[in-house]
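Q: Convert this sequence to structure tokens.
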Amino acid sequence: MNYLESLYWIHERYKFGIKPGVKRMEWMLERLDNPQNNIKGIHVVGTNGKGSTVSYLKNALLANHYEVGTFTSPYIETFNERISLNGKPILDEEIVKLVEIVKPISEQLDIETDLGTATEFEIITMMMFVYFGQLRPVDFVIIEAGLGAKHDSTNVFTPVMSVLTSIGLDHTNIIGDTYVDIAREKSGVIKVGVPLVYAVKNEEAKAFINQVVAEKHIKGIKLGRDIQVVSNNNEFTFRYKDYELEAIELNMIGAHQQENAALALATLLEMYDRGMILLNFNDTVKAIEDTTWTGRIEKIQETPTIILDGAHNLESIEVLVQTMRQYYPDRKIDVLFSAIDGKPIGRMLKSLEEISEHFYVTTFDFPKALPLDTLYESVEHDKRIKVKDYADFIKNYDGDLLLVTGSLYFISAVKDKLKK
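A:
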């Protein structure tokens, strides 16, 4: 198989959907001599903030001369970025090699068991474990969970640190429709002997996570209790134990990014205190300050201003609206929105409509993308407008500020179209 054939085989498995559970992963990995047991991993789970936190951790470790692998989803510009080595997507030929290794195992799974066919995400996760556990070992692998934690296909290894960025109402049709349901699923990241760094704001969810931490007698490092973030507009002071780092100014704007950066810093300092890593504090802070993450309040044009943000659920939309109000209070903001099925579209739109001058809706080429007419009928804004060719619209936008948002998959499609 060549690269395109390998990609086609991977993506064809999208039709098998989402099937929570780790039995298929465990069966396949065992036949590959359990490569997941060979890595030193940091497991990052949560409803929002995972990608940014992974990026802060990666850049800080790289700045301290460690080799770092990352596993993230979804990809924004190229499929290969899902498995990255030292910040760079792995090569096409490495994707081919990995498919050659995992494809026969997935076929054996179909023939020899009644566990069902491996999904697309399971295949990619298995490729990642093979790559970093056998083909290209690194000092640390930072692994972003897909959906949930307990039944997510990444949850088949014992990390050196676990990070829970947030708990919000997303994927409620799969992992539960209350905060406690989702906390119960996310708690699967909590493992005996592995410290947990976490930020949970909903009181019921926080109480549940606190209880699991206590029951498993692990070290829980909680934002707001053990980790302090004192914000002063664009700068913040970080405190953890006896450490105090002042005047940190991030490239990535918003109070939520200060919290994500704080989680990453606490994780690194805990690893430092445990003798897992050496840290140059100046280099660490600079790397975190310089971090960017594509598709997260990403300014792609200055005049007129065009911003992309993959806010894909109610909590992330509300944070986006708050951030836009804080940083762009005097601007006339137009919104271009598209989303996939299974989200609380009504409430997401309502929040965005509060800051928008004009509200544009569109659709994009993706299996679960909502139709244009469905989105249009869902908008209550008195200046709602349909956009058929979103790439042309963005290219010729002549307003003050255009905010393109609604789904990371949509942002990926936008970047691809604009690049072409």
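The mean pLDDT is 93.
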